[in-house]
Write a structure and sequence with these properties.
alpha+beta, six-stranded mixed beta sheet, 3 helices, 51% helix, elongated
Length: 150
């Protein structure tokens, strides 16, 4: 049977691949639009339009690089390692919910349960790091009691 950590990792990777495809498609479309605009005519109005399109392409390229970096980090994360303290790759069960420390992705649903996929650099990730079963953390006026770490 597939572990819950493997299921979470697979679902986030699936979503990352879709995001990469969407961003790549948008870049191709904008590049084609920019190039068609270059061929059509010259003038300040068209130069401004091409410059705006290029800015959008540059922003999307940065997003694409970041999403690819997230995908690589998640792909390389060892989810089979059992953790005694919270760290990257840990699934932390608290009295308020589940947290997987990996990349900053947000909430996902697996098998009728919600999991927060967080980075170790996020505010709650920094609080949870190096904690162990039985510890508590205070985040936004809420206390999270750690019930287990795997």
């Amino acid at each position: 049977m597939v572990s819950i950590k493997q299921s979470i990792k697979s679902e986030v990777l699936r979503q990352l691949v879709l995001k990469i495809e969407d961003i790549s498609t948008a870049i191709i479309s904008l590049t084609e639009s920019r190039d068609a605009n270059m061929k059509s005519s010259a003038g300040d109005k068209h130069e401004t339009s091409r410059a705006k399109i290029q800015i959008e392409i540059d922003q999307l390229s940065k997003q694409l690089n970041h999403v690819q970096w997230q995908k690589n980090n998640l792909s390389n994360m060892d989810i089979n390692q059992i953790h005694n303290v919270a760290d990257v790759g840990s699934l932390i069960k608290t009295d308020k919910g589940y947290f997987l420390i990996s990349i900053g992705w947000g909430r996902i649903q697996i098998r009728d349960e919600y999991y927060f996929v967080i980075s170790v650099g996020s505010p709650i990730g920094r609080l949870l790091q190096n904690k162990k079963k039985g510890d508590s953390v205070q985040f936004r006026n809420t206390t999270y009691d750690i019930l287990s770490i795997s």
